[in-house]
Amino acid sequence: MVRFSLIVPVMDNLSRFEETLASVLRYRCEAAQIIVAHNGVYDDPYGLGKEVDFVGTDSDDDAPSELISRMNAAIKIARGEIVVCLRPGIQLTENWERPVVAAFADPAVGSVAPAIVNRLSDQRLVTTGVAGDWAFNRKLVGVGQRINSRRLSKLKPLGPSSWAAFYRRSLLTALGECDAQLDTHYFDLDLALSFQALNFDCVFCPECTVTIDDPTSIANEARLARGLTSVLNQKGGAVTLRLTPAEMGTVRIQLQLSGSSVSAQFHTETSGARSLLQQQMSTLRTALEAQGLQVDRLTVQTSNSSTGSQFGQSRGDGSANDGHTRGQYSQSQSQGRNTRDGSGDEFERMFQSHDTGAATALFGKG
Hints:
This protein is α/β, with parallel strands linked by helices.
């Protein structure tokens, strides 16, 4: 019997994907299925076909819903009782599975949220999971909490974050596919609300720790969402946010409302911040449409530059779908490329140092 199906999608950063896959191969437990979901052209350069199930999708790496499409494809072939979703950059730690198995022993538990910790500074949480409502007011739970804090036991996320999540497969199957029109930023909240509607609980499991080397993407994603909400609550205007790390500078969000139409300008100080905003356009557009607004234009401008990036006109009315339990809103284009930044070279060196290329030889698993 397969207890776990561990899903790792190939996304825009191959180095982070390889780091996550290496940790899965190193710390996998017995009776575990490993699934890699990709864009249909990943060629398994390390010869893991005997140990990993590969599944391709039609979505390319520029599609805003590629994460959801790949998760849907992987869940279809999952055989484990518990589905583990790990986004690139997340790494498992030793004995992660024990507290998870104990939590799922309760039949009322539908999902488990692990403690996501900054691997380079493991005293504080990056997050435990998500909270929110059907208006898609999403927020991360437990951000910045100390690992040894007494408050940790009081944290109660509605569901796990899409960065690292454990789900009961029978419930995922019952719910059907996640709506591919839903923005990646919100699909974990959509699942959490759907599980709640079926009267299943989420348990935060601090004993199950996963790590991430660079938590800034999670932190900045949440910071931008909060900033946008703040300006919306003011019925327009501007707000300035400081990004992480400090070298990223600030982002000034300027919002103009005219009836049900909205235009937003994002002024950045650095090219790194501009790149971040370009990657988040899909998420920010969805956040606006979730408030019933028609998005006319989103513009990113870098200081001391006469050029900027415009992200077109509104796609439509942003209305909800059937709204029973799954995906409420559609989204537009996001940015992304399959790039290797060199941090995954260690993974490649490990494989090249073994004639067979097998993970069992690498990590001593029999």
